[in-house]
Amino acid sequence: MISRVGEDWIFLILLGLLMALVSWVMDYAIAFCQEAQKWMYGGLDSNLLLQYIAWISYPVVLITFSAGFTQILAPQAVGSGIPEMKTILRGVVLKEYLTFKTFVAKVIGLTCALGSGMPLGKEGPFVHVASLCAALLSKFMAAVFGGIYKNELRNTEMLSAACAVGVGCCFAAPIGGVLFSIEVTSTFFAVRNYWRGFFAATFSAFIFRVLAVWNQEEETITALFKTRFRLDFPFDLQELPAFAILGIACGFGGALFVYLNRLIVECMRNPSLPVRRLVYPALVTLLISTLTFPPGFGQFMAGQLTQHESLVALFDNRTWCRQGVAEEFDYISHHHAWKHPQVNVFITLILFTVMKFWMSAVATTMPVPCGAFMPVFLIGAAFGRLVGEIMATMFPDGIHAAGSVYPIVPGGYAVVGAAALSGAVTHTVSTAVIVFELTGQISHILPVMIAVILANAVAQALQPSLYDSIIRIKKLPYLPELGMGHHEKYNIRVEDIMVRDVRYITLNSSYRDLQEMLMTGQLKTLALVESRDSMILLGSIERLQLQSLLSLQLSRQRRLEYLRQLAQDNGTHDHLPSLTSDSTPSSPCTHTHLNSSTNSSAQVPVSSLMQITEWEEQQLDEPVDFKNCKIDPAPFQLVEQTSLHKVQYKQTTSNTNEIQILTINHTHKKCAIEGSVTVTGVKVRPPLASFRDSGNTTNVSEVTELHKLCIQCQV
Amino acid sequence: MISRVGEDWIFLILLGLLMALVSWVMDYAIAFCQEAQKWMYGGLDSNLLLQYIAWISYPVVLITFSAGFTQILAPQAVGSGIPEMKTILRGVVLKEYLTFKTFVAKVIGLTCALGSGMPLGKEGPFVHVASLCAALLSKFMAAVFGGIYKNELRNTEMLSAACAVGVGCCFAAPIGGVLFSIEVTSTFFAVRNYWRGFFAATFSAFIFRVLAVWNQEEETITALFKTRFRLDFPFDLQELPAFAILGIACGFGGALFVYLNRLIVECMRNPSLPVRRLVYPALVTLLISTLTFPPGFGQFMAGQLTQHESLVALFDNRTWCRQGVAEEFDYISHHHAWKHPQVNVFITLILFTVMKFWMSAVATTMPVPCGAFMPVFLIGAAFGRLVGEIMATMFPDGIHAAGSVYPIVPGGYAVVGAAALSGAVTHTVSTAVIVFELTGQISHILPVMIAVILANAVAQALQPSLYDSIIRIKKLPYLPELGMGHHEKYNIRVEDIMVRDVRYITLNSSYRDLQEMLMTGQLKTLALVESRDSMILLGSIERLQLQSLLSLQLSRQRRLEYLRQLAQDNGTHDHLPSLTSDSTPSSPCTHTHLNSSTNSSAQVPVSSLMQITEWEEQQLDEPVDFKNCKIDPAPFQLVEQTSLHKVQYKQTTSNTNEIQILTINHTHKKCAIEGSVTVTGVKVRPPLASFRDSGNTTNVSEVTELHKLCIQCQV
Questions:
Q1: Shortest alpha-carbon distance between residue B299 and chain A (Å)
Q2: Which residue ranges have biased composition labelled Low complexity (chains A, B) (predicted)?
Q3: pLDDT at site B701
C-alpha cells in the first residue's frame, strides 16, 4: 500500500517544500520592504514634508506597480483566489486560473502589495498560489514521469490538498489550515483526502518554521504569535457572558464588513464612474497612508506599526490599563505606539478598530492580489483588546469571588475577538483552531469556541460569507448551496425546477435539424435520444462534436468531390478552382459558411451556385451519421421525483451539464450559474470528462453498439 | 434563517445538556466505585489474603454484573458502538441498536465496567450513547411536536452531530470530538453538518466542565489532564528524529494491537471452546486483577493507580529519572507508585507498557460495553514517557548546542506517544487535536503531528483500523472503501463487477412470472422494465409490494366471489362454508397458500377443488395490474462506463439496493455486505426511502402515469 501511495507522498512533499519556501521568501521580502520604508521615513525626521512624501510615495509606488504588473501579466491573479478555487473544486474549469503566468503575477504582485503596508492579507492568495503550485507540479510530473500524474481526478484531489497547504504554511497552522480550507472550499468532503491535506500542510508548516530557525530568527519551532497567558486560571466562568457578547458583536461586525466590501465593489463597477485600473488603487493607497502617517492622525491609531507588530502587541498578556490610567509599558518597543501622552488608550483602540475597519474594507477591493483574512483578524484582535481592557478596568481584581485574586487577561479577549471576527467574515468555525495554532495556547478554547459559534450564527443570518459574496459579484458559475435549516428543500423535487422543453436530437435527425439546433440553442451539451416517440436517452454529445459533424458533412473535400462528379457528368471544368478556393474558410461554423457561399455569388456562375446550394440542401436532409461521434453514455440522470438534496449530492460529485440544464431556470434563487453564459473565459465541464476520454477501448465498443442501434432504427 | 434553524438549536442544546449530565454522573459513579474499592482494599491491610480477595472480587462482581445485565436487557449494547454507528450512518438500519432498552443497558453496563478498574475506555460507547440519546430525543420530539422532527433525513444529520457530542463530552474536547467522529464514521462528509457538531459538542463540553466547577472539583474550566510544560522552548529541533521514531514505533504497536484483538476474538469464537458469556469476562477480570494486585506483581507496574491517575502522572512535566537514577518525586501522591525501592523506573515503565498492552487487548474483547481508546491512549503515554526518560538520561542538559540549557521534557514525549498510538489503532489523525484539548497545551503541535502521521502511515499499511476490524468480525453490512492510493480503481467500471442477469419484471408480466420470481430470487427490490425488448427501466418495486399484489390477486375475497359466481351458475351452495374457512390462512405468502389448498382436499369435494385450482391457474396467467403498486421511480442508475469511484460517491449518498445488487458479486474484495443476507436483525434500506413515502401527492401522479403506460403497452 505504501508503494502505491508513493507518488502521492512524493508529490505532497514537493508541494509542501515549494510552498514553504515561497511563503518564507515572501515573508522575508515583505519584511525587507517594510524595513526599507521605516528606514526612509526614519532618516528624514528633520523635515515633516519630506517625511510625509517618503511615507506615502513608497506604498503608492508598490501598489501601483502590483496592480499594473498583475493587470498586464495575468488579470486572473487579482484578489483573494479562494472564491475561484471554490468554483474550480466544484468541477468548473476557469480558464487561465492555474497557469505559470498567473503564478508569477500572483507571487510578485502579492509581495509588493503586502510590502506596501496596506491592510491586506496573505492567506487567501496563498490558497491560490498553492493550488497554482500543485497544478504546475502536476503538469511537470505528468510531462516527466507520465502515468498516474496524468489522472485528472487525482489532480483534483491534490488541488484540495493544496488549499490546505496554502493556509497551513501561511500561518504555520496545519490543522487549522486543513479545516479552514475544507470549510471554505467544499460542500461535501471526502475523508479520503483528509490525510493528504494533513500531511502536506504539516510538512509545509514544519519547513516554513524550520527556515526561520535556520535563519537564526527563532531558537526553536514555536507559534507565529506566541502568547504567554497564565495556564492555571486562564479565565473565570463569570467572564463567559462578556465573551459571548464579544462574539455576537463580532458577528454583526463581520456582516457589516462583507456588506461594506460589496457596496464599495458595486460602486466602483458603476459605469458612470470612469475609474482607471491604476488610478483607483493609487488613490486608495494615498488616502490610507495619509491617514496612518505617524506624525499626523496616525499617532492616535498606532499607524507606524505593521500588522505583525500590532498583533504581537494586542496579544500581550499584560493589562495596558488599570482603573482608567494607562500603565507604563515601555518594555517592548512596539508598545509605546499605543500609548499617546494626551490620549487615553481606549481612544487609541477605538480609533484603530474603526479606522482599520473601513480601510480594510476599501483596501481589499483594490485590483491587486490580496486577501482579507489578516486585516479582519487584526481588527477583531483590537476590538477584543478594547473589550478586555474595559473589563479589566471594571474588575481590577478579577471577578472571582472566593479566595485568590486572578486579574482579567485582556490579551485573552484579543484572541477571542480575532477568532470571532475572522470567523464571522468567512463563515467558518475553524478560525478557532487557527488562533490556537497561531498563539500556541489552547487555554482559551471555551471562550473562543463560544464566541466563534455565536459570531457565525449572527453573520450567517445577515450576509453571505465574504467568499460567496465575491462569487456573486464576479458571477462565477457556482451552484449555490441549499442553505442550512431550509428543511422545506427536502421536499423540492427536480420536477419543480426542471426545464421541460430540453433540446434533443434523435438517431434519425437530419443534418438540418442539427444545424437549426446549433444555431438557436446555447447549451454546451445536447441530449441524444433514440427516437421522438420512445425518448430513450442514449447519452449526451458535446456541442463541439456536433459542429464538427456538421462541418464534415458540408466540408470542402466533399464539396470538391461532388463538383468533380458534377464536372465529369457535365464535362465542364472551368469554374472549379475559383469556387474551391472561395469555400475554404467555410469549416468550423455554419454561420460563416452560409455567408461565404452567398458572398461568393459574384465570382461563380449562377448555375453552378444553384447546384451547390441544391447539393447543400440535399446534404442537410440526410440523416446524421453518429458513427464517429463521441457520445458520453453516462451522464447523470435525474428523475422528476428526485429530491433537491439528492441533486446537491450528485452535483458535488461532478458538475455535469445536465445539472446546468436543470438549474438554469432555477427560479427560487438567482443562481450564480446563470451568469456563466455571459462571463467570458469560463467553461463548464465535468471534471471526470477528460478521464473518461482516456478509456479509448470502451469508446470503440460504445460507438459500435450505437451504430447497431442506428441501423436498427433506420431499418 | 435563525428562526428556521431554531428547532435544530433547541434539539442540539437538549442533546448536549443531556449528554453532559450523563457523562458527568457516570464519571462521578465510576470515581465512587473506584474509591470504594480502594477503601475496602485499604481497610484490610492487616491480612494479605483478605486484601487480595477484596481486590479481585470487586472487579469480578462488577464485570460479571455488567456482562449479565447487558446480555439480558440488550445484547446490542456490548462493545464499542462506533462500528455500528459507522454502519448506521451509511444508511443501514440495524435493529434494536437505537432503542431505550439499549440506552439503559449501555449506560449502566458501561458504568459498572469502568468502575471495575479494568483497562477499558469510555469514548467509543459514548458515541453510541450520544446517538441513542439523539434517536430517542428525536422520537420524543416527533411524538410531542411532530413536524420537522419526523423527517428522517434530518434525524440522520442529527445522528452524525451526536457522534461528535459523544466524543466531545467524554474528553471535554469539542474540536477533536467533531474531527474524530468525522474521521471514524464518515467517508464523505457534508460541511453543512459541521456547525451542528461543533455547536453541540462545544455546548456539551462546556456543561460537562461547568458541572465540575459547580461541584467544587475545579476552580474554573480547564482541560481534563492539564499539563504545565514550559512555553518558551517546548522542544528542540534536534529532538524531532526521536519523535519520528516514537511515531513509527507506535504505528507498529497500533497494528499489533488490532491484530492481537482480532486474534483473541476469533479464538473465542472457536466453537470447540465452550466459553460461557459470563465465565469468560469473569476469568479475564480475575487474571488481570490478580496481576495488578499491588502487593504482588502490581507493585512493579503501578497497579494500584486508576487510568486517570496514571495519565496525570505520565503527563507530569518533571523528569523522573536523571543519569539513570530516579529522582525523589514524593510531592504528588500518585508518583510513588512509579518508584519502587528495588526496581528502576525504566523497568516499571516497560512492564507497565507491555502488561497493559496485552491486558487491554484482552479486556476489550469482553462482552461488556467498553471502548479501547483510553487504554490505548494510556499505553501510548507510558511508552512515550519511557522514550522521553531515555532521552533525558542520554542528554541530561538537553541537546541544544548554543548557549542556554533547556532540559528535555519527558512529559512531552508521553503526550506525543499517547496521540500516536491511539491514532494508529483508530486510523485517525484527529487524536492530535484531542490530545491538545485534553492537556490544554498546543506547544508540542509539530512533534505530535509528525508522530501521528507516521504512526498512521505505518498502521494503515499493516492492518485495518480497530473499528473496521470489528466491522469485519461482526460481518456488519458495510461496503468497504476503495482504499487510498488504489489508483487502478479509477479505471474499474461498473461493467466489470455488475451482475448481468438481473431479475426484472415487465409491464406485461403475468402473476405467474411474479410468483416464480418471488419464490426463486432473494433480492429485496426488483426492477420493473417496460417490456422484454425495450428494457426501459421504469423503476423499482419492493418485494413486499409484489407479495401483496400476488396475495391480493389470489385473496380470500376474490376466491369467495368466484365461488359465489360458480355457485350461482351451478345452483349448488353446500360446500361453500367449509372451503372459505379453510382458505383463510392463505394470504401473505403463496407457499402456505399452495400447501393449505392441497391439505384441504380431504374436506372439500374434488370437483370444486379442481375448479379452484383451475381458477388459480387462470388468475396467475393474468397480467399483473401495477395500478396500486408503489413504484420507486428514482433509483440510482449506473451505466456500464461509470467508474467505481463514482459509485462510491453515489453509495455514500444513499445505500440503495441497486448498489447491493451490484456489489453482491463484487469478487475483488470479500465485501462485508455479503454477510448481510446471513446476519439476522439487519435490514438494508435507503435512508431516504421513508422520506419519499411521505410525499403522497406525487405518488398518486406516478401511479397515474404508470397506469397510462400500462394501457399503452397492453393495447
A1: 32
A2: 577-601
A3: 34
